[in-house]
Fold:
Amino acid sequence: MSEAWWAGRIRPIAIVVFRRADGAVLVVPGLDEVKGQRFYRPLGGEIEFGELAADAARRELREEIDAEVADLRLLGVFENVFTYRGHDGHELVWVFEGRFADASMYEREVIEAREHDARFDAHWVPLDAFTPETPLYPDGLLGVLTIVDKL
Structure:
């Protein structure tokens, strides 16, 4: 198996949690074919050298779904050590909560996204849909969202 481009280094990323009034969060489904596991993760991506995490989060959302983020608030920083498609990974994940500047984004069940040449869909998923078999990553995020949801 060839080495993944991100393996062997610590990768800083910034992601944004968006919530609808019904409590659903916007996530992208993923599949690790090696483990045979489906999972979910909020939108976002890598922080570039010299870029602040909040600026990276805003940039990534503009690049991925052509959307502007308002009221960005840091929920926490997670250290995510994982295996994906047979490769070890290590991320430092700045997790923000925000809202869309364009309220019509909340009315769309599926939001088309892109990363470089790849196209994918983001979906609104209720918190109770995440399970050990279909987890929300990074590890620990679901617990934080559940606690914040109760405040």
